[in-house]
């Protein structure tokens, strides 16, 4: 139910016009007639008043935040309930919200730093008095006429927990800005959660895009828990790379690894603006107490070492990458959706060697594709490519598994999990996901990350239990994944490993035999695409998404103007005149040690530089 209060008087304020309307409240510009000043009146919609405790909680929350007197916290002049309508009277900020400002363009670093500093002082003031905001985001940062920033809506997120329009499954806050520990309910929201929200806001201020944009609410929350934060300097080359150091610390998955206060974040960012390295972001993380691995864990780790060289990265000459498994006789099995319709495919091994590949078989029922390599890898001994064990095995729920792949197209990473069961075609268990299985699928409690598609799930013996299939994974928030069952993969390989004729990529986005006039899947007319060769050592990734030799102004495939986006390959960037770092480094996100030459932590995927 919505209200129309324009022209009425509420709490001594004459309502002039409506400023904003949301799912839980309406905001009006009003004149406080007793003192002749413009104010904002925020009224809570009657829909929420069915809770008999709401008005009591409303007064408790607002009275607590009304006592916060700080230049960068919105002043609350009055609050209460009149004519059955709960209201808050606040100062009017004519500059609108930070969200309004970001609708125009991203901010320059200097302005963003000023806003962060101002909001950080208000946050630290509130935290020192035991008040947590819980919903830091650009919409809750207001600007006055001189673009000074103030924080609003303290405590409102917690107040509205009964409304599913603000919260999801009881979570307090907006999914786009929620800290991982709040999503997983590992611990209640605290100062560190607000620091995380401020870091997400900083990311949006500098990029103009929301972190993990383009996802559903469930996927966004899962991404905050599992996915590494993208490097911002790759999107804005005008920003110092040290900005990423600040963001990665502010957005660490582990609350203990973040800045201890919002002020520390602001100070490090100010150091970047001054041209110096952010001191706190460079500090070593506190030592972690790690339990001695059990015999089961050591056995699984040994299996990973034996098979990891068989896990390859499937790369496309257009945008995209996935994971696959190297099989005997120079074959690779991966998910069909990773490669289908790609006119150029090449395989990258852990040694860095890259080999062109072609599709020889596809199965649409079980989302599998079989690739054939041009030649045997020269940088790996046969023993390194023969560690996987094939064949069915009876498993018990709870048995440990490892998923090996390339989350979001990064370098090799391993995630632990457990076997939950094998779901057969027609089973009731998957109706809740809207899935009709045509082949057996392994269900596990390890999330199948984007970019892991085609990567192996192995048990403690190194047996192929299945290959990850992220396209059949609708339960991201519950950390559930599905994989094509290992025996299905093995049977598919055996049935097609003698195939000689390669399939061709077509304009329909699928692979078919050569000479097709119509797509078997869509029935539409199609044309074969020109094959794109594997990029050479000097190739650059262009704005068209393809690799081409340097110096081109037009894409040879599309004919459209292009510009070079940077060199392909996985070589870490280094500053001119600086030596490449050596020795081990410790991940500031999970505490894992790994070689400094790696761009990403192999355990959690966090960027290392």
Describe this structure in words.
The protein is 21% helix and 23% strand. Residues 160-172, 284-291, 473-477 and 566-581 have low confidence and may be disordered. A hairpin with a 2-residue loop joins strand 1 (9-10) and strand 2. Helix 3 (109-128) runs antiparallel to helix 6 (191-207) and helix 3 runs antiparallel to helix 9 (262-273). A 6-stranded antiparallel β-sheet has the order 1-2-3-4-6-5, covered by helices on one side. It has helices spanning 54-66, 98-102, 109-128, 156-159, 180-183, 191-207, 217-226, 242-250, 262-273, 279-282, 295-307, 336-339, 486-496, and strands spanning 9-10, 13-21, 25-32, 37-44, 76-82, 85-91, 141-143, 149-151, 311-316, 321-327, 331-335, 345-348, 354-363, 368-373, 400-405, 413-423, 441-444, 456-458, 464-468, 481-485, 504-505, 511-512, 540-542, 547-548, 564-567, 584-586, 593-595. With 609 residues, it is α+β, with helices and mostly antiparallel strands. The longest helix is centred in the N-terminal third of the chain and has 20 residues, at 109-128. The protein folds into 3 domains: 1-92, Phosphorylase Kinase, domain 1 (2-Layer Sandwich), CATH 3.30.200; 95-283, Transferase(Phosphotransferase), domain 1 (Orthogonal Bundle); 289-534, Thrombin, subunit H (Beta Barrel). The protein starts with 8 loop residues before the first strand and ends in a 14-residue tail after the last strand.
């Amino acid at each position: 139910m919505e209200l129309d209060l324009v022209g009425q008087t509420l709490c001594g304020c004459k309502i002039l016009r409506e400023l904003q309307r949301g799912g839980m409240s309406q905001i009006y510009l009003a004149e406080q007639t007793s003192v002749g000043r413009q104010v904002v009146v925020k009224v809570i919609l009657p829909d929420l008043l069915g809770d008999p405790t709401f008005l009591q909680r409303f007064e408790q929350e607002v009275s607590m935040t009304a006592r916060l007197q700080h230049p960068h916290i919105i002043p609350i002049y009055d609050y209460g309930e009149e004519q059955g309508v709960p209201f808050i009277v606040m100062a009017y900020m004519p500059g609108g919200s930070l969200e309004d400002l970001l609708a125009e363009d991203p901010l320059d670093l200097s302005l963003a730093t000023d806003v962060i500093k101002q909001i950080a002082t208000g946050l630290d003031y509130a935290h020192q008095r035991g008040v947590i905001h819980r919903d830091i985001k650009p919409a809750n940062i207001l600007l006055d006429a001189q673009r000074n920033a103030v924080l609003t809506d303290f405590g409102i997120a917690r107040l509205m927990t009964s409304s599913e329009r603000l919260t999801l499954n009881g979570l307090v806050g907006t999914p786009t800005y929620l800290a991982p520990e709040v999503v997983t309910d590992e611990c209640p929201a605290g100062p560190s959660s607000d620091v995380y929200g401020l870091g997400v806001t900083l990311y949006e201020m500098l990029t103009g895009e929301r972190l993990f944009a383009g996802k559903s609410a469930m996927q966004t929350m899962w991404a905050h828990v599992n996915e590494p934060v993208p490097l911002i300097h790759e999107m804005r080359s005008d920003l110092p790379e040290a900005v990423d150091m600040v963001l990665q610390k502010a957005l660490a998955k582990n609350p203990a690894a973040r800045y201890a206060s919002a002020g520390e974040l602001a100070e490090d960012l100010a150091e970047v603006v001054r041209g110096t390295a952010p001191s706190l972001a460079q500090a070593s993380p506190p030592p972690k107490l790690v339990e001695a691995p059990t015999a089961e864990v050591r056995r699984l780790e040994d299996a990973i070492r034996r098979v990891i060289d068989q896990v390859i990265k499937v790369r496309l000459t257009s945008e995209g990458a996935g994971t696959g498994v190297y099989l005997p006789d120079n074959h690779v099995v991966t998910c069909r959706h990773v490669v289908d319709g790609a006119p150029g495919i090449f395989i990258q091994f852990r040694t860095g060697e890259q080999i062109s590949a072609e599709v020889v078989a596809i199965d649409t029922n079980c989302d599998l594709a079989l690739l054939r390599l041009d030649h045997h890898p020269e940088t790996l001994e046969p023993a390194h490519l023969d560690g996987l064990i094939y064949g069915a095995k009876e498993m018990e729920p709870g048995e440990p598994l490892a998923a090996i792949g390339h989350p979001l197209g990064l370098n090799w990473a391993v995630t632990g999990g457990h076997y939950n069961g094998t779901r057969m075609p027609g089973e009731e268990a998957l109706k809740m996901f809207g899935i009709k299985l045509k082949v057996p699928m392994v269900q596990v409690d390890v999330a199948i990350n984007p970019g892991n598609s085609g990567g192996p799930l192995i048990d403690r013996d190194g047996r192929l239990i299945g290959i990850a299939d992220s396209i059949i994974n609708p339960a991201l928030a519950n950390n559930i994944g599905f994989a094509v069952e290992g025996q299905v993969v093995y049977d598919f390989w055996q049935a097609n490993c003698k195939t000689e004729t390669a399939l061709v990529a077509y304009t329909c986005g699928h692979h078919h035999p050569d000479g097709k006039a119509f797509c078997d899947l869509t029935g539409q007319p199609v044309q074969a695409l020109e094959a794109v060769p594997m990029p050479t050592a000097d190739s650059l990734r262009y704005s068209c998404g393809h690799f081409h030799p340097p110096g081109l102004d037009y894409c040879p495939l599309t004919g459209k103007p292009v510009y070079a986006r940077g060199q392909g390959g996985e070589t870490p960037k280094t500053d001119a005149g600086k030596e490449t770092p050596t020795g081990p480094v410790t991940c500031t996100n999970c505490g894992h040690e790994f070689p400094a030459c790696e761009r990403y932590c192999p355990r959690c995927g966090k960027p290392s530089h």
